[in-house]
Amino acid sequence: MSSDLILIHEADYRKLFGIGDQFVTDVIVTVNNPSEIPTVAKKIKKRLHDSRPIIQDEILRTYDSIFNWRGGMMIVIFSAAVLAFVIFAWDKASGLSAGERREIGILKAVGWETSDVIQMKFWEGAMVSLSAYLGGVIFAYIHVFFLGSAVFEPALKGWSSLYPRFTLTPFINAEQLTTLFLLTVVPYTVATIVPIWRAATIDPDTAMRHTGG
Question: Could you give the number of structural domains in the chain?
Fold first, then answer.
């Protein structure tokens, strides 16, 4: 199934490695009193020196640590994406390009009011950010629930770990979508208002003259 896994019947395994029916490789021990589990494990190790007692809690902690470590990698990737978005929004808010200033100057020259320019540019930024938001949400929904999160699954699970196959039940979390909307669409849209307002309040001739046209 993978580079380090072979599925084989128990009888074939015993025949292949020469293990008799009276021997086993793994034994499950159930202890009624949970507080006695470490003591029982120590006694097994003391009497069977070659054995390796593993407590169920240790297995759960190991998987939890591995998942958190791999989840940390995803957080780093996500943080890089957020940083890129912040830089993009900051660049948008810091000023307009020469072409955009010229466009605003022309609109003001043909009779547009400052409020009209701001409203037009506001809806323009809102449509761009909203389209990107909806496209990202739809792609993420398809990727996770229909494609089995093919991009992120190897990073979270790892190629050498055994996990049961399961299919996620599609659902939509309104709280998460709202939070994502407030963290992406709203900041970008607001970031477009300040430079537009600054450019729309100056004289049209001045705005076009400073564009080099």
Answer: 2
* CA-wise closest residue to 194 among 127, 109, 96: 96
Give me the residues paired with residue 5 across strands. 2
Kindly state whether residues 19 and 96 are assigned to the same domain: no
Tell me whether residue 64 is in a domain.
no
pTM, 2 dp: 0.53
Spatial distance between the Cα atoms of 204 and 12, rounded to a whole number of angstroms: 86
Which neighbouring-strand residues pair with 138?
none
Res 111 pLDDT > 70: yes
Report yes or no on 44 lying in a domain.
yes
Q: Indicate the length of the chain as a whole number.
A: 213
Helices (H), the chain: 10-17, 37-47, 56-94, 98-109, 114-145, 153-157, 174-200, 204-209
